[in-house]
Design a protein that fits this description.
Helix content: 40-55%
Strand content: under 5%
Number of strands: 0
Radius of gyration: 19 Å
Structural class: mainly alpha
Distance between the termini: 36 Å
Largest sheet: none
Amino acid sequence: MFLTSMDIASIEKQATFGSCAVSNVLGTEMTMAIFRWGRTSWVFLLSVSLLAQSKSPVCDAVHKGHAVGHEQDGVNAVRQALDAGGDVNERDQAGWTPIMHAALECRAQILDLLLERGALVNVRSEAINQGFMTTGRTPLLLAAGCFISRRRAQLAPERQMPRGYIEYELAAAEKMVHDLLTHGADVTVTDIDGRTPLMMAVMHRWPDAVRDLIAAHADVNARDREGRLAIDYADASDSETIAALKNAGSEKPAGHSGRIACDAEVALNKLGSDFIQDCIPGADLARAVKKFQEGHGLSSSGQLDPPTLKALGVRP
């Protein structure tokens, strides 16, 4: 069940801490570093759009809703930017539109406001390939791959968030997927790796989103560039999602896991790392893998090679 805007406003009003400001003159590498530092602290989710605040006011406004308990700040800022003449479909220097940022931020209420104001739902990201900032992403791909809301939910107790906040965060992905589908989002789109929105929802364990995508005729037997099906992205313990895929006619798994990075993050977290499970095989994961390899007498390449996967207990 979705929370209403009134429910959300009430929950967020009870938040007891303030948001942090970040300089808008950061370069791309520093911006990414602060995001990674945020894994163990404030959990900033920033983009290179911060480099162009004067040119992309609506994109910038979206980020005001990032912090735990502060989505309403983002809603208010986006509404103000649009009312002041901001373009709901503007692109920042990274080639991303406001609705892409809202989906990446897992902010369903901001996304809904943008939809109400005419945001295009089938636009694709441009310009950059770094971590989660890749080309060819649509709002639906980003919403189905929502990951930051789980981190906010994890932080809720220490931030003394009120009752209902965790459920509110964990409902965001399914609500965004549902609302984007209602507005005509294309379920057949793929990212640069050939992954569909269904694959992303399966990988990030959003069973309600999986069901919505299947109901919208997402192809359960579409294959990514490596020949994997959506079911190859399923966590072995996620029986609900696996059953939904099988009931929709999924073929047997191709036998090559699509969630190696996800499972490696989980395994490393059990050993003391503190990853947001974003399932992105980026520089942070490579550093943690290299450290693990060095401590276990393995070739320290930073790559998730077969000996490393075996040592981590990750299915290849």
